[in-house]
């Protein structure tokens, strides 16, 4: 193997190829590709894309669902040596256009199901060439995979080159791009290699959409081990134990909301997940009760709670569940554990100075990304202190026994809904742009299913269905408010600012919850 590629993210796949050339690399339903088949296909797509373009693109977007084409496209992008931008076909067209522009995407890889989305993008004026392995050959702007253009090997990359770009919610009403370098990934996955015993005998789940950073954990842990990755369809949750058993899944990773979902449907009985060796949860706070119930179902599995924002490359802390975990938990929430080796961290108190006991978690080190695509978005999120640059997570934590960090909640107006991180200010901004609305405020309301969003607005009494339809033009479906309330004027607190706590109380009262 070419040792100069050891830092490259695609080196994870090359390792898997060397270990399991005829083993399954990706399985989606009844379809699958071996490592060798996926390698050959990705090199063909990468070469075809580069051969069809007049010059090397600045970035390539992968507009595809969790099918074989999506995984081929991701690997093909990495093989070209240019930044890969995963795009969710179900996102509103206008939001996707914002991402394409922000990331400087100059070409696309599109699967058959997203071809209709491509046409909508073209109707909005997008003229990017797109590689599509289907029936659209000959259509203007469509690139066909050509075996004659196959690359001989992946293009070399430098450690500081961007491997992929993911987008988080932005308070200005537009998504913020986070470029993750090959060096960021090399440090992260190097730690995971040292920590876990993954191998070709494992089978990994893929529950996350490909534009979610936790999907990269599944993808490159599986490929680095030479193991199969299995895309989990929505229908699998109707009988998750049956699906896990049929697929032979040994490594599970999802948001904690999956636990409550299958518990509500009566599937979380004792010992129903015997194949699992490892279980990981991230994206939301996970309760001790949730993990206790999962452990009872997966008696042979080690369980870890992982935590980390996109800006710190997937996850930056981990807590291994044990019988002592509930004793150090706060408010029944599983600790997030210690910060990864090789990083500096501090807790920033309310006075802006380091606090030894409790405060906002700030982290510096090799997993820290350089900043957002638009430097203007960096304001307030990064902190320079004593020669190091820290990312301010916006999460309040407490230092517990044995160096365990205990999660206490958000400091700002950012929340996580179904694992998707969203700025409430982005929803507020989208509400204000709705015809008839003067001002709008969204609040997160706890429920048995996790957080749900309620939106209050002033101005005209716009029907909720009209507001939902208008918001769906720019906001992902997962974060659309589930409830809309008209209000004559917003309550104000002592500082004459909108009193969000009072709005939350009213929302709980209106929805029949406990204020």
Structure, described:
With about 525 residues, this protein is of the alpha/beta class. It has helices spanning about 10-20, 35-50, 70-80, 95-105, 115-125, 180-195, 215-225, 240-245, 255-265, 290-295, 325-330, 425-430, 465-470, 500-510; strands at about 25-30, 30-35, 60-65, 85, 105-110, 130, 140-145, 160-170, 175-180, 205, 230, 250-255, 280, 300-305, 315-320, 345-350, 360-365, 380-385, 390-400, 405-410, 415, 420-425, 435-445, 450-460, 485. The strands form seven sheets. It has a five-stranded parallel sheet with strand order 4-3-5-6-7, sandwiched between helices. Strands 16, 17, 18, 19 and 20 form a five-stranded antiparallel sheet that branches. Strands 2-1-11-10 form a four-stranded mixed sheet. Strand 13 (about 280), helix 10 and strand 14 form a beta-alpha-beta unit. Helix 1 (about 10-20) runs parallel beside helix 7 (about 215-225) and helix 2 (about 35-50) packs across helix 3 (about 70-80). The mean pLDDT is about 90.
| Assembly status | single chain
Count of helical regions: 14
The helix fraction, in percent, is 25-40%
Shape by Cα distribution: globular
Largest beta sheet: strand ordering: 4-3-5-6-7
By secondary-structure content and strand pairing, the structural class works out as alpha/beta
Return residue spans where pLDDT drops below 50 for at least 5 consecutive residues.
none
Find the count of extended strands (DSSP E, 2+ residues). Answer: 25
Beta-strand content bin: 25-35%
Separation, N- and C-terminal Cα atoms: 61 Å
The radius of gyration computed from the alpha-carbon positions, rounded to a whole number of angstroms, is: 23 Å
Largest sheet: 5 strands, parallel
If you average the pLDDT, what whole number results? 91
């Amino acid at each position: 193997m070419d040792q100069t590629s050891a830092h490259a993210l695609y080196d994870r796949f090359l390792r898997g190829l060397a270990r399991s050339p005829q083993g399954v690399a990706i399985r989606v339903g009844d379809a699958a590709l071996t490592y060798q088949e996926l390698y050959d296909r990705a090199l063909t797509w990468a070469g075809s894309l580069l051969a069809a373009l007049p010059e090397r693109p600045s970035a390539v977007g992968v507009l595809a669902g969790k099918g074989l084409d999506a995984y081929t496209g991701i690997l093909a992008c990495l093989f070209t040596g240019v930044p890969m931008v995963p795009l969710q076909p179900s996102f509103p067209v206008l939001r996707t256009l914002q991402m394409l522009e922000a990331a400087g995407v100059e070409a696309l890889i599109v699967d058959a199901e997203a071809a209709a989305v491509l046409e909508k993008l073209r109707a909005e004026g997008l003229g990017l060439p797109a590689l599509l392995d289907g029936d659209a050959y000959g259509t203007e702007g469509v690139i066909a995979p050509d075996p004659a253009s196959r690359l001989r090997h992946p293009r070399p990359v430098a450690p500081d080159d961007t491997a992929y770009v993911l987008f988080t919610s932005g308070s200005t009403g537009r998504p913020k791009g986070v470029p993750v370098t090959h060096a960021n990934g090399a440090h992260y996955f190097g730690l995971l290699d040292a920590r876990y015993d993954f191998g070709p005998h494992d089978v990994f789940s893929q529950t996350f959409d490909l534009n979610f950073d936790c999907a990269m954990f599944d993808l490159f842990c599986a490929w680095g081990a030479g193991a199969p990755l299995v895309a989990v369809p929505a229908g699998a949750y109707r009988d998750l134990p049956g699906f896990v058993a049929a697929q032979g899944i040994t490594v599970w990773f999802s948001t904690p909301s999956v636990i409550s979902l299958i518990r509500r449907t009566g599937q979380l009985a004792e010992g129903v997940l015997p194949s699992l060796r490892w279980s990981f949860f991230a994206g939301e706070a996970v309760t001790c009760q949730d993990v206790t119930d999962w452990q009872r179902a997966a008696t042979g599995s080690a369980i870890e709670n992982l935590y980390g924002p996109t800006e710190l490359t997937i996850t930056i802390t981990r807590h291994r569940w044990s019988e002592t975990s509930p004793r150090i938990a706060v408010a029944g929430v599983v600790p997030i554990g210690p910060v990864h080796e090789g990083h500096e961290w501090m807790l920033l108190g309310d006075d802006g100075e380091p606090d030894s006991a409790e405060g906002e978690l700030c982290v510096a080190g090799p997993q820290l990304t350089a900043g957002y695509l638009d430097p203007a978005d960096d304001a307030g999120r990064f902190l320079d202190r004593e020669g190091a640059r820290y990312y301010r997570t916006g999460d309040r934590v407490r230092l517990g026994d044995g160096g365990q960090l205990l999660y206490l909640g958000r400091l700002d107006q950012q929340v996580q809904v179904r694992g998707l991180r969203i700025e409430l200010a982005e929803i507020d901004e989208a509400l204000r742009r709705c015809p008839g609305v003067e001002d709008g405020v969204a609040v997160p309301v706890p429920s048995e299913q996790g957080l749900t969003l309620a939106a209050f607005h002033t101005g005209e009494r716009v029907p909720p269905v009209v507001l939902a339809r208008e918001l769906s033009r720019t906001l992902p479906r997962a974060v659309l408010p589930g409830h809309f309330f008209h209000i004559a004027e917003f309550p104000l607190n002592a500082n004459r600012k909108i009193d969000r706590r009072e709005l939350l109380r009213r929302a709980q009262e209106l929805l029949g919850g406990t204020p």
